[in-house]
Amino acid sequence: MQVLHHIRRRTHTVERVPAVMWFRRDLRVSDNPALVAATEAGNGSALGVFVLDPALLRPCGTPRLAVLYRTLRALDAQLGGNLVVRHGQPAAVLAELCREVAADSVHCAADFGPYGARRDQVVADALDGVPLRRTGSPYAVSPGSVVNGSGQNFKVYSAFYRAWRQHGWAQPARSVRPQWMPARSDGVPADPELPAGLRLPEVGEPTARHAWQAFLAGPIEDYADHRDRPDLNRTSHMSVHLKWGTIHPRTLLAGLSERHETYRRELAWREFYADVLHHRPDTARAYYHGQLQGLPFATGRLAELRLAAWAAGRTGYPIVDAGMRQMLAEGWMHNRVRMIVASFLVKDLHVEWTDGARHFMRHLVDGDLASNAHGWQWVAGTGTDPAPYYRIFNPVLQGKKFDPDGAYIRRYVPELAGTPTSLIHEPWRSPGGLPPGYPERIVDHAVERAVSLADYNALRQAR
Predict the structure, then answer these.
(1) Do 266 and 391 lie in a common domain?
(2) 186, 194, 288, 316 - which has most CB atoms within 10 Å?
(3) Domain span at residue 274?
(4) Are residues 147 and 125 part of one domain?
(5) CATH code for the domain in which residue 9 is found
(6) Of all helices (H) and strands (E), which one includes residue 159?
(7) What's the CATH code of the domain at 447?
């Protein structure tokens, strides 16, 4: 009965609606400047709509789709069951909706992503005299707002961070509770069929706010010391809520004190990468610095086999396998481990970073285009503010440092549950051999590290 509720088509008597609130990456009612503007334009009423755009749904894996649909259901509940959901191209859908309800204006937050910026211009042109008013954005400081003394965008994070802090941000927007107007809706689709055992996070604005308050009440105080430890639950888990806009970074920043500088810096990375992508939209899939495009990468069947073993968490390196299996089990992975597995794919398996970035975006429920693409480029040494290409993560040493007792590995790699701590990061050294079911190492890290450095030096000399 519950599923039928979500997939049935709702019909209503149409009334004139002065303002349409177009939800996108802001699936909340609090701290939402676009909603404030819509409510004011509508004299206290608004029609809330979400467009299921095929261009954005196609690249999504089933975990991300399920989280989106669950978040939309949570928003629909906040709107008293009045969220209008329609399928199709946003320009056509919104133009039709505006004609149906005789809307005077459409309101949304500005989108600075490559596709979103183009889409919004097409929508604005299609609305036939109804203005598209963009208020606020998914960021504390909108991309393009922070520039250097020459008026250019920053290309190094540290300089961006200083200017970003000096620029500052607004306080959270005031709360409004408009009268939500009804209109025909396709309803929120049922969840796609999910892999057995997948555990997705709870979503929606009330969940996000409760989780943030719980983090502020204790774990944030040792965040700086323990944020890199995947064996400890010391991160905020706000990334999925920021992705879908069930909480705004401005809300998070308002809750921080001066002693929470480490967490503030982490929020700024998201803003920096959004700014970089805004100025270089091609870098969503292309190298920011193209000089490493000449590096040799695995191709054909070899690349397919290596990518498949990595994706399944069967490389023979425990910390890598634990991370990839965590993503399969939860649609999420600890940030430190994301860097480890990314380095392993690019510099041990010699698979191009673009393949890994695409895989992450299919599986991560918090997959953000700017952060994902430029996080991978940071690891690969091709992006802004990069770790030098010759910095190559050693998966054994990383495991020993950040999962010293092997608790994280045992949690996600059950074949190693009985392995003693002295061998948990190097099970191939066990006198009795590998535990049943656990694979041999796909490569020798020391050998592949040398290959990567040799390839890099050869490319430099050739140029």
Answers:
(1) no
(2) 288
(3) 140-170+207-279
(4) no
(5) 3.40.50.620
(6) helix 157-167
(7) 1.10.579.10
Tokens 């259901």 found at = 73
Q: How many domains does the chain have?
A: 3
pLDDT tens track, the chain, 463 positions:
333 333 334 445 556 788 999 999 999 999 999 999 999 999 999 999 999 999 999 989 999 999 999 999 999 999 999 999 999 999 999 999 999 999 999 999 999 999 999 999 999 999 989 999 999 999 999 999 999 999 999 999 999 999 999 999 999 999 999 999 999 999 999 999 999 999 999 999 999 999 999 999 999 999 999 999 999 989 999 999 999 999 999 999 999 999 999 999 999 999 999 999 999 999 999 999 988 888 999 999 999 999 999 999 999 999 999 999 999 999 999 999 999 999 999 999 999 999 999 999 999 999 999 999 999 999 999 998 766 788 899 999 999 999 999 999 999 999 999 999 999 999 999 999 999 999 999 999 999 999 999 999 998 888 7
Contact 240, 201 (CB under 8 A): yes
**Tokens 């008026």 sit on residue:** 151
Residue after which a domain boundary falls, among 258, 279, 300: 279
- Rounded CA gap, 287 and 215, in Å? 36
